Amino acid sequence: MEGIQNFLQIIGGMQWSDYLDIIVVAFLIYKLLPLLKTPNVMRIARTVIALVIIAWLTDVMKLHTLSWILNQFLAIGLLAFVVLFQPELRRMLDHLGNVKLSKFFAVSKPAQEMDAVIAQTVMACEIMSREKVGALIVFAREQRLDEYFKTGTEIDGQVSEQLLRNIFFKNSPLHDGAMIIRDGRVAAAGCVLPLSDNYRLSADLGTRHRAGVGMSEASDAVVVIVSEENGTISVAVGGMLKRHLAPQTLEKLLYNELCPPENEEKASKRNLLNKIKHKSEEADGHEKN
């Protein structure tokens, strides 16, 4: 009861500036946390939390030797931290720097209609998979990916199955690089992406797949990869690679990652229509045979 009274006294003694301070800090935390939710940043966060817990345990359990060693480490900890996590810190700053201020301060709005973009991408990937044409398609989300955008050729074209296939055609000068789709348009092609250094990746994966995984590790992008060797379709998100996807699975995955929750019902209806369409085409094919 005494604790409640003390709490009420503190609340009663607060001024309007204190309330404003709390609201601003809460807003910043709410907006910053989703932006920092990348594998590399999580590594830094886990390291900091582990050091704090170890320091607390050594103090509670009175482990003087370990506490002394930890204190010596923490004395040069900032410098060591910057040296050890230099790539992660650079990527984290790139992440924050590439986010639009309008998106950061604005109230969340429904995402741009992605139905046509996803449908055209899936159609192109299905054909390229059948013809064994390699492709690397990056869907930018909150991060603008300006650093990688500048390494390629600016296009600013409407997403269409023909455009995607022409860019990744084997004789095209841009087919070896990555395509970046941003704000529902083909922003650039022939872009250079960072390669993943994840030792757990399968040894049979080539440069295209490692670049796709590396891009998903360094940003919040969704990356679609079509293998030139065997035509398999893969998707990399958050450092994880999902391989051997059917076109229908690719479409569902892209809807889940790129469309807001309010479009899920529309996505399920579209998937149902596509299934009916595929069955109808198969039936027509059997009748002709």
Could you explain how this protein is built, in words?
The chain is built from 13 helices and seven strands. The chain is α+β, with helices and mostly antiparallel strands and 289 residues long. It folds into two domains: 2-105, no CATH class; 115-282, DNA integrity scanning protein, DisA, N-terminal domain (YojJ-like (1). Helix 8 packs across helix 10 (161-167) and helix 12 (247-258) packs antiparallel against helix 13 (264-288). The longest helix is centred in the C-terminal third of the chain and has 25 residues, at 264-288. It is elongated. Mean pLDDT is 79; it is low at 106-112.
Structural class: alpha+beta
The helix count comes to 13
CATH architecture field of the largest domain: 3-Layer(aba) Sandwich
CATH H level of the largest domain: which superfamily?
DNA integrity scanning protein, DisA, N-terminal domain
Q: Which fold name is given in CATH as the topology of the largest domain?
A: YojJ-like (1
> Approximately how much beta-strand content do the residues carry?
5-15%
What letter string, H or E per element, gives the SSE order?
A: HHHHHHHHEHEHEEHEEEHH
Radius of gyration, whole Å: 25 Å
CATH class of the largest domain: Alpha Beta
Could you give a short account of the major beta sheet? 7 strands, mixed
* Strand order across the largest sheet: 2-4-3-1-5-6-7
The helix content, as a percent range, equals 55-70%
* Overall pLDDT level: 79
Low-confidence sequence ranges: 106-112
What coarse outline follows from CA principal-axis ratios? Answer: elongated
Total beta-strand segments: 7
The count of domains is 2
Note the gap between the termini. 84 Å
